[in-house]
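Long-time lurker, first post. I've been practising inverse folding by hand and with some scripts of my own, and I keep getting stuck on stretches where the structure tokens seem ambiguous. Below is the full token string for one chain I'm working on. Before anyone asks, I'm not after the true native sequence, just a reasonable design that respects the backbone. If someone could post their per-position residues I'd love to compare against what I wrote down in my notebook.
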């Protein structure tokens, strides 16, 4: 059944790509621009943690930008639907913000991003969903200069539904109830080296991030990524090493004893094929 769903998603994505490409081309005239992206990934890693339980993901999004610096967009990916989050088979991100130049080489970016998981509910008792949604709202502030980008995101809601009611059953293992996790933060640092002198369209990407979960320090960790991207025939081919030092006691899937468990924060290779339009 999952394989059939992936084939349907791929077919739908191909049709969407063909239908939207002319519209995006027409929207490039100032002051408006519309762009999109579509890709296949061997794993969906969010802040170093696999959201597909180390399985492939199909992803795509649309972005609108205004000459004033305002922008908005939507992005989606399949995620692992399982008993833990009670039916979250889709992640849908909706965001908007504003960018403006502080100097010729420095750009400021601020906005908000909502992570939505239609139909998903966190557990409030073993095998029983609560009314607590898995959704999350971040506000962020970022800076970019040349190949460097840095962004600090702060949760304006409970961090993906984590609070006293859901803590004992969240994040794959029991936690002591300590209140709301609102105010949790993620620091995201990235650098891209263009390697055109070696090969046209070749780039090296480096990333390090730090998640700090408020009141639930066990869930805090550092993640990293090092990868290469090659533009070829209108597509971007990617290969990256992604991992984290997330505590295995919490970031795993499997039984409580850890037998046959998958470490969803472990270091691994991620392959990708993307197309922008």
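-- Answer (accepted) --
I ran through it position by position. Result:
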């Amino acid at each position: 059944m999952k394989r059939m769903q992936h084939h349907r998603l791929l077919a739908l994505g191909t049709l969407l790509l063909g239908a939207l490409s002319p519209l995006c081309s027409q929207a490039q005239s100032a002051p408006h621009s519309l762009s999109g992206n579509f890709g296949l990934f061997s794993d969906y890693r969010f802040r170093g943690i696999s959201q597909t339980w180390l399985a492939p993901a199909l992803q795509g999004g649309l972005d609108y930008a205004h000459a004033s610096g305002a922008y908005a967009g939507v992005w989606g990916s399949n995620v692992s639907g399982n008993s833990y989050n009670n039916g979250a088979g889709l992640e849908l991100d909706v965001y908007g913000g504003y960018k403006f130049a502080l100097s010729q080489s420095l750009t400021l970016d601020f906005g908000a991003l909502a992570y939505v998981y239609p139909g998903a509910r966190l557990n409030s008792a073993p095998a029983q969903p609560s009314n607590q949604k898995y959704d999350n709202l971040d506000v962020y502030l970022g800076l970019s200069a040349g190949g460097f980008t840095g962004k600090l995101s702060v949760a304006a809601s409970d961090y993906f539904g984590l609070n006293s009611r859901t803590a004992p059953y969240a994040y794959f293992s029991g936690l002591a109830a300590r209140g709301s996790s609102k105010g949790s933060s993620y620091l995201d640092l990235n650098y891209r080296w263009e390697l055109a002198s070696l090969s046209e369209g070749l780039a090296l990407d480096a990333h390090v991030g730090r998640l700090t979960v408020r009141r639930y320090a066990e869930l805090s960790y550092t993640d990293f990524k090092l990868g290469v991207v090659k533009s070829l025939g209108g597509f971007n081919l990617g290969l990256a090493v992604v991992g984290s030092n997330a505590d295995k006691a919490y970031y795993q899937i499997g039984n409580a004893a850890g037998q046959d468990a998958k470490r969803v924060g472990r270091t691994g290779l991620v392959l990708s094929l993307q197309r922008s339009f």
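A couple of notes from the structure itself: The helical segments are 2-26. The longest strand covers residues 90-101. Happy to go over any region you disagree with.
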